[in-house]
Fold each of these.
Amino acid sequence: MTQSLPKLRLGTRGSPLALWQAHAVRDALLKAHRWPDEAVEVQVIRTTGDAITDRALSEAGGKGLFTKELEEALLDRRIDLAVHSAKDMPTRLPDGLHLVGYLPRADVRDALILREGVALRDLKPGARVGTASLRREAQLRRLRPDLDVSLLRGNVHTRLAKVESGEFDGTLLAYAGLSRLGLADKVSSVLETTDFLPAVGQGAVAIETRFGDIAVDALVVPVVSPATGLALRVERAYLAELDGSCRTPIGGLAQVEGDEIRFRGVVLAPDGSRFYEIVRYGPINRALELGIAAGKEMRAIVPADLLPH
């Protein structure tokens, strides 16, 4: 960084996982540019989603609850870039903002944390499992309709504590988040994507900047992953085509395999009683088109009560 450039101000939520992500971006920038520690300042910004802990996000306004205040700070030029969990990002961003890229993606799978036992089969009928995700709830109900699935909000440590105390018999969380917080030893088992397809963007850390802020984007580009960017381009285009929100259980995963991208998407009824799946392949230079086509194909087969037209 030359002396003519101002200190980069990085905005983030204040949860332990959000702070890990913010410092991962900060450390990557410092390393890539050989900057001193003071070159990137981390600013914690409380979001509406952080303040809501008594109800599901789908009842309070959806994904934008975790990004709104950060994006306002970007537009007001109080920060230069915002760091998010990619799965928290709405498919439509405010005018004047864009996603410049993502850190290399971590493990995309969900993890099962049980008070007793190691696998879903170890849960007794009627066991209480907590989650704040409609997608996880629907996929869990599809496999184990005999369980009592209830709302469990709060940060990772809060949810783990409620399992350890016996308030819940188990919960499901992103394996990447647990690993990043040094809590992988709390995992009873990792759920394969064949049964639990992740949320769009799961495992990826997104970096958002002002559109046209060429100087900041140029500084961020060396730390982002092209492969993760391709995968997320597919997944987010798919979700946008479905007009996906927190109100519909939707999963999607794109994987770059050489010069090709493989995409799998699912939509479920909230109670898991209905399940719709598509698989598509396409060249990496048609990532956006692949995602749009997958979304159109899914919308054509899913009943209107699950995906209102």
Amino acid sequence: MRRQSSHAGFRFLCSAAVTAILAAGLGGCQTMSDITGSLTSSSSPKAQAAPEDPQRAVEVYGEQYRANPKDAQAALAYGQALRTTGQREQASAVLEQATIAHPGNKTLLAAYGRALADNGNSQAAFDVLSRAHSPANPDWRILSVQGTTLDKMGKHEEARRYYASALKIVPEEPSVLSNLGLSYMLTRELPQSEETLRRAYANPRADGRVRQNLALVVGLQGRFAEAETIAKGDLPAEEAAANVAYLREMLNRKDKDNSRPPGRKATVPVAALNRPD
């Protein structure tokens, strides 16, 4: 039973990581906050009838999509269901076809851009997301995701301008602050990263993934006892133990990477905020 819990905790953290290489030679993993809120409407009949089981949702929405591939809502629901179950390439293909059929549909463009970002197609994702909103009517969620795509392309200063724009719309939004904190982590600005993540963590709407980001950046500064306390939080004992074990693994990997011969690239996984659809 303990093994299953540890495995679940490992999945919880690892599902939020994709590789990003730092100019300084330190690798990292980063994800982005999701933009679900800008993609679907809670008043939608299909949203209200959404199956709770992710695989069942794929089946239901897949049938609706195949019955009418040009139905924008069916394509959106199917694409989101595919993303939730990890079928990222198929989700991207479905949403790409939907945007071709509905080129002016900004909701579909936002979903397609997010799917491209899932697949690591950062530049394409940024370009598509740029078409999903306008300067006159910006969407803070999309601005935040655009920031993460820029971070993954190594354009950190530009990324932070997008986070700043998002925070002007939703001050102290924890998901945006978390992404900003990770951006500072990627450039080794650890004190600034910690300060930003603490702001995110102090927000009542922050979830456990913000805590893991904060625990990591504290640990990267050598304060492991404090990092362990943060990682445990008020979690059940087994889940807390799994999170601490993974935190130890990440920090141990960082130490091993630091001992590599010059010229060898290092990679350090970074737990990050990513709310599944």
Amino acid sequence: MSDLLFEVADQLIMPRFGALDSSDISEKQPGDLVTVADREAEVELGRRLCEGDSDALIVGEEGVFSDPRCLDLLSRVAHAWVIDPIDGTRNFARGKPDFAVMLAETRFGETVRGWIWQPAHQKLYVAELGAGVTCNGEPLPTIPASPRTVPLGATYLPVPGEEWAEVKVIRSWGSCGIDYPKLITGAVDFLSYRSMFPWDHLAGALMLTELGGRIATDTGEEYGAGVIGRRLLAAATPQLWIATRDGLFGE
């Protein structure tokens, strides 16, 4: 499966990196960019995945925007592939390297495998349920212990006026495919999001939980396919998740 991500990135994504024309970029809705590379890569990934299992449900970010009905099926179908062809499209469109190709495989709503390929950084993260996480083929044994006395986290869009004494929050890298690897390698202690789309989070969530972290909504519901809520919080350890939740949300 890793080879498939490499091939699609090499053939359809990287040739357009830093070379997009204005006609190659559009908005699905105000502020939500999509490029010709997003669309073509998702179609090709979906086609190739269906060759292996024609009955599998394909849930792609761009396809769901056109037809959201498959989201309702994701938590209960026997087999599904969840595709984010370019996570961090805004970065990609601006010629910035912080973007990723992400893929998750689910069985009856449970994420069993996940891939994050960062083609500009040449880093591949792979997780398998019960088998841990690798980076470029090397096992990641654990999330490094944080040296910080005040937990440091990242969020995509800080809300003006939000300030916390118990935690420190910076702006994230603009791609969940960059954020989650930052978390599991110790660059930050937690991540906070307002959206919970499966293509953004399933692969990274599996990597985090395989390494002993926790991801759940602000009410404590563990994250997975079909879970929605007000805020999503991912932390390096369950204890840190509680401390961060209390610091962010005052509960």
Amino acid sequence: MTEHKERKINRLLRQLPEGLLVDAGWLEDNGFSRSLRSQYVDGGWLEQPARGVYRRPRGPLAWEQVVISLQAMLDLPVSVGGRTALEFQGYAHYLRQTQQDIHLYSATKLPGWLHKLPLKARFLTHNRSRFLPDTGLAGSGVSLSMTPDDYPALPGALRVMQWGEWKWPLVISSAERAFLELLDELPTRETFHDVDMIMEGLVNLSPRRLQPLLEQATSVKVKRLFLYFADRHRHQWAAHLNRDRITLGKGKRALVKGGRLDRTYNITIPEDMDALQ
């Protein structure tokens, strides 16, 4: 190998951590041409888990590596949310799914190769600002070199957590935001039973984080459901919410076919909800 090629490969080893993904555009921008990429693949320095996507080999690909790559390597405004964020923080891991869905929230369209990677998990992408204000983040706001002391205070009740043996930063919805995102999936992808079980365990939510989220949320369905479940479980934090500042709209919301009407929040709920208590 020539000295020039050795310098190139050493730079690749410094810039691209083992196991993380980058696309052809990233490699091109960093001086690795198409012919070099082919040589690195042939030589085993790189592998292609999907067309136009590369990584330095290190064991099976995990969904967390993919998301960290999107955030820290490709600087995309994406965060883990909904049920996935709750599971990651230990609130819903005991609820079984027939297939592991990874819920990602972004202010921009994510690359198509995301859905072609060799993973057992399936990525489901959502518009981050569909019912909550856009966080205003141009990118993820994190870098791999950060330590917990360096983690930024992110807007919109997002947070940074560590993952893996290298303790890489992962941008994720706080439990408060994640539960509202979960409610948005009810009843199409989530069930009242699972949501009820998750809320039962949310004994330490922060009213300080919840209040602005509930005031800013544009989904009447999500806000009514949240207050319904909060009343149902009577957690101490619920008493500290200023409900007068939460607009709940007018009229009824038929969420369940053949359900019964909860007259406090004008939403239909399953007939058997009382039996779950």
